[in-house]
Structure formats: structure tokens, C-alpha cells
Design a protein that fits this description.
about 850 residues; alpha/beta; Ferritin; nine-stranded mixed sheet; 35 helices; 18 strands; methyltransferase; T1MK-like_N_sf; site-specific DNA-methyltransferase (adenine-specific); restriction system; Restrct_endonuc_T1M
Amino acid sequence: MITSEEIKKRLWDGANELRGSMDASRYKDYMLGLMFYKFLSDKTLDTFKKSSGMKQSDEKEIVQAYHEAYEQYGEQLITMIRDVLGYYVLPDNLYQTWIEDIQAGEFEVQKVTDSLNSFERTVAVTGDADDFKGIFSNSTIDFTDTALGSNLNERSKNIKSLILLFADLNMVALQKGDVLGDAYEYLIGQFAMESGKKAGEFYTPHQVSEVMAQIVAKTSGIESIYDPTVGSGSLLLTVRKQLNEDAQKSLIYYGQEKNTATYNLTRMNLLLHGVRPDRMTIRNGDTLAEDWPEDPQRPNEGVQFDAVVMNPPYSAKNWNKSDLKVSDPRFEIAGVLPPDSKGDYAFLLHGLFHLGQHGTMAIVLPHGVLFRGGTEGEIRKRLVDKNYIDTIIGLPDKLFTNTGIPVTVIILKKNRNIGDPVLIIDASKDFMKLGKQNVLQEKDIAKIADTYTERREEKGYSHLATREEIIKNEYNLNIPRYIESIADDVPQDVDAHLFGGIPRSNIAELNVLTSTVPNILEQSLKEIRNGYFVLSSSIDEMTENILKDPYVIEKSNEMEVKITAYMNKYWELLKNIDNVNQITDLKNEMLIEIKNILSEFNHVNIYDGYQIIAEIWQHTLTDDTEIIASNGFYTSGRTRVPRMVTKGTGKKKRLEQDGWMGSIVPNALITKHLYRDELAAIEAKKMRLQEIETELADLVEAAKVEDSEEELALGETLNEKEDAFLVGAVRAEIKKVKKDTTEYALLKNVESLLNEKATLNTKVKKLEKELKEATEERILTLTNAEIDMLMYEKWFGNVVDRMVILIENPLKEELHTLEMLQERYSETLSTIEEKSEQLEKQLEAMMHELMVNE
């Protein structure tokens, strides 16, 4: 079975190879459009196969049977498929027919264009016309575009390659467990990163979507969701993933998108994720130009939704091209229109207008909306007075590819209790740098979501701002007014600088050391004067004593016991997973439980532990559980798949098989545990090779020294460009010199080393090849016990150690602070004066010598 990660990598590698110099934001329309058409064709064939009762699994046979059935039954057959799917693809227009034409050398680009146009015409007469209308419009997918190739032959070649990229993917099978949808979403995200500033038109970074989705999904009873600037639909789908299975089935999706190509992308994305056409209403239109959706029964209220999410264009200029007035129902609540130069509040007010009384809204906007004055200040005041602003979350800068500015997520509700404070979260410092971009890790998202749920205050991170505070700040909601950053630097003490010693106040702030190992800390400090101390033990000694302290050992052992029990519990659940739909729930359960376990330990960073488990899922468990759910644990453990490697460059670049690899069991672990002796023998030979290389390198350097014995004996045998001896030259020189001479001995030594090196290299290659082949064969005969041992190490090998370190980390961090304080105050006024006096004396001595010499 091909996993989500394998599909993502293969498709993205293929996209990069095929698009050449074509702009990513444009190429995505072709690639994602054809991928979607393959899905439509596969769904058509699958429906035909099930409806006709066919047992064949060979695709070519099914395609042939579909052709024959169409010739015999015509419209009757098509009506049957259309009644099931709401659409159909005619036999001659199937994606599979294009592939057959390519294989037969009869492919024509016009056939693809005709097929897409035919699909447009067939859905135009169905009840689902709006769901598919214009989805393959020429403005989006134009196969005459010269960017695909300067002439017809070039375009034909490139389009054929793109079609073949999806040829072997069964889109119906991949749709189960959302594998197909995840791959599609991944490609959208990758194209967004490649597209730079153009990405803002169609994509919200997944990490930002996740923050919004986890918060919005906490609203109970979500049955409808609306995104007025829907882009690719990623926000809608991310919220869906946070809901339980029953809620997902009944969820109704609404979205509006101004850009036609992106509007088409939205519909494709939702359909590929299994959203039924009757559950989604997506409109191609300008959200601000006129209100939508409207309720004919209540024209001035608009349709209300349980959840509203949006990532609108930031500070859109000239947004009011329709000359809207404050009497527009969407803006009445504000009493004024947002400024024409910045449309941020126009989008916010539109979303708020469509928010149900018990719903939740999340919107991403630039920080300016929190503090700008004028009419925006008036709107902000009205929103605070109406008690609609629930939470403000400050995020880091450089999260988006289309802007480097930091953004804020604002959460709004209409049913807040009078007197409820506004939760303000400053998450701007929690991120990981990845190239030029900053990214939120899973632990950062979890901390934001937990802080929101618990409405908790944390110094330097979150604060509950009362209405009185906000009024005192003149309705300015700029985050630094409410949350003061915690300075990383420990404040300077002038007295300590003058006379030395670490201030008692600084020591008192070492909360972890003072509460965990107070005796060791006290014994390691010597008071040199009232309130000031120096270390009487080195930091290394203190670290050793602290880690051996009975309390620290007890807590470390307790952590080990709890984490081992945790791993053993989920080991059994992971091994026995038999449905891909269980995977997400199991992951969430593991992440919640690890937080609960770690919360029992004082001073441990819960979210660092959370990240450890999240990364195990990211790197191994997601793929492995997909395979196990389909094939079973032990069957998967004894299954091997081809290891494909890229060879050649340019036009000769190709994928070739290079042996086999375990479907879930890593070859490296099999070798490490089941072929220890063979591995040790190879390592011993490699170590000897390193020794030989060192000896030869020393002789090369010696041979470069003019008039040295080595230079006289070996100089003529050197290849100076490569800093190496030429074996042929060495042998020729041996014949020239007399035996029993230094020259002869040096030459024979080099010859011996070169011969041994060549022999060892040959042996190592042979042994490595044999070990590789033995490992690949061993996959097929692994016992259940061996699979257990190897997979347990793969999943949980170092988890206990990493969790125990979480107990040690805060202690070591404070020891580092203590060491810094010791160094900071070690140079006092008196030591500086002593150094100054010494320098003066040295200068006087030098001056005296100069005078004497004169």
C-alpha cells in the first residue's frame, strides 16, 4: 500500500520535474485540475463496477466493460451513474482512455480539452450543475498556454508526462481515510510556498488554520460553517478534521471566493475530501461588494452559521467599490464604515453579521486592527462595548509566504456573559525557524488551544483583560499593553559589580533549584558579605550532585515507570489498529494522555513532552498505522517493498529499484539487531581503512617537505592535485632503488598500505552487498517476536530517556543561569583596579627599557 507521505513526495517531486520554469501559482491549476479529473473518472468506473455487479479488479477490463455497456444501454447507463454520483464521465472521455492513447502513441492534446468540455456540458443539465459549473474553464486550464511548451509537440509531451503522473493511483481507494485529500491539501500548500506573495490568494498556512480550527471546533453542536474568503477551502477542511465523525457527516459548508481559478480549486478540494455536493455551497463572488448568503425569509439578517472562519486579504485598499453605506445590515452594528483604504474591519463585520448567536468566529488580521484610530478605533470600541471580542492571539511574524508581518487571530462570540474578560495571548515568541519562514510546532498550537480552553493567565504569555482595563487603555487592544514580555536577561546589580558576589535576590529567583534541591544549592554557596554569595563548588560538581539527589532520582524513576506504562498501553492499540478512520482519534488520545501524565511533575515543560509524541506520529506512526490498518501488523512486518532511487541527471534522470526495504520495519534495525557479528566485521575493516588513510595522509605531507627522506623517496610518486600516491609510480620507483635502503623501505611501506587499502575496500563492498541482500531477504522471515522487538524500538526506542531529560532540563537551565551570574560578578572594582595597576607597571617597565636603550 502506498502511504500518504509517499504519495505527497512522489507527486511533489513530479510537479517540480515537469513544470520547468512555469510559475507555481499557475502550474497548480493544471496539476490539481488533472488530478481531480482522474478522481472523477475513477469514481465513475467504481460506480459502474458496483452497479453492474462486476467482480473484476483489472482496470482495463472494467474500462472495456464500461465502453460495451454504454454502447448497449446508452442514456440508461449514464442516468444510473448520475443518480448515484450527481455526475459522470463518458467512456471516451475517461482519464484511462487518455492513458491508453498515450500508450498506443495516439495521444492528442485536443482530446483532453474535449473531455473536460464534455464534462462541463454533461453536468450543466443536472441538478448539481452549480457544484461543477466552470470547474475546468479555459481561464483556469488552458492547454494552448505557451508556458506549457512553445509549440504543440512540446505541450503535448509535457501534458502526457503530467497525465502519467497519476496513472497508477486509484483515487477511490485513496479517498478512504482521507489519504487523497491530505495529498491534495499538501500539494496546495507546497504550491503556496513556491508561489511566494501570490500564495495569499489561495492558501492559509496549515499551522494557522490549525490554531483557528482547534478553537472554533470547541463550540458545541457545529452543524454549519462559513468562510467568506474561502481560498482553497483549507480552513473549512481543517475545522472539519477537529469534529467527530457524526458531526463531519452532517456538516454544511458555505464559502465565497473572488478569484475564479481559486474558486474552482475550492470545489475540487472539498469533493476530493469526500464532501458531498449537496453539503456544500461555494460561490464565485466578491464578499464585500454585496452580502451573501442571504435568507429570503429574513433579508436583513443574512444566513447565520455555527462557525465562521476567514483569512481575508490584509488591509485591502479601495474595498468599497460598490459605494456601500453604513445602512448596509453588515455594518450597522459598527455605526460607521471601515476606511476605504483598509478593508480589515469590513471583512470582520461581514463575518460577524453571519455568525449565529451561539457560534464562534475566528479571523486572521494584521496587528493594526488592534490599535489603529479613526473609524477603525470607533468600530473596535463598539465591538468591545457589545462584548463580542472573546480572545486575541498574537502570532509570530513570517508565518505566511505572502507577508512577513506578524498577524493576530481574533475570536468573536455573540453570547458572552456580561463582565467576561477578553483573553489576550502573546504566542509571538513560540516558533521554529525553517529556512526563511517561521513555523508553529504542534506544541505551540496545543499551548494556544489549552490556554484558550482553560482561560488561564500566564506571566509573559496570557492575560484576562477586564472591560475596565480596556477602557483605561482607551480601547487600544495592542497586546504589549496587557502582556509584558519577560526579559531573558537577569537584571544587573551595581553593588555586585563593584564588590563581587551573586545577589541573594537572584538566587531566590532560581525557583526550580530552591524548591527541588535546596540543600545542595545552600551547600554550594558561600556568603562573602551580607546578601552576596560565591560558588564554593563548580557547576560540574553541582550538576553531578543534583542528578544523584534522591528526590531527583525518585522523580526520574517515577517518570520512567509512567512513560513505560504509557508506551505499553499504546503499543497494543497501535499494533491492533484495523481501520484508518481510527488513526486520528488514537493520535489525539495519545497526545492528551501525555499532557496529563507530565502535568503530575512539577517544573516539567508539558509541551516539550507533547512535541516528542507529536514528532513520533509525524515521522513514523502516521505512515505505519495506515499500512497496519490495511494489512495487519505482522503481515506488514514481513512485507518488503521496492526501494526506489533517483539516478542520472537532466533528461536521463530516472527512478530505478535499488533492492528492497521493509514496509514498516527499517532495514537498519534488522541489520543492527540480527546481524551484529557481520556488522562488527565490516566496522572493524572500516576502522582499519581509516587508520591506513591516516598513515598515507601523514606520508603525503612528509613527502612534501623539501629535502626530507620522504620527499627524496616518495616525491616522484605523488599526485599533488589529489594529495595521494600513484600506485603505478610507487611500483616503478621500487624497481629503481636498492633494497635495504631507507628509500626502499618507505616505498614498500606505501605499496603495502595501498595494497591493503585496495583489498579492504573490495572486501568491505562485498560484505556490505552480502549484508544488504541478507537483510532484504530476512524481512520475509521475521518472527513475530523479532517484529515486536524491532518495531518497539522504532516507535519508542528513546522516549523514556527523552522524557526523563524533561525533569533534568529546568535544573540544568538554572545551573546555567547560576554559572552566568558567577562569571558576571567575578570581575569587581578591586580586580579591575589591580589589573589597571599591573598594566601601568608593565608600561613603566617598557618605558624604562626604552630610555636605557637610548
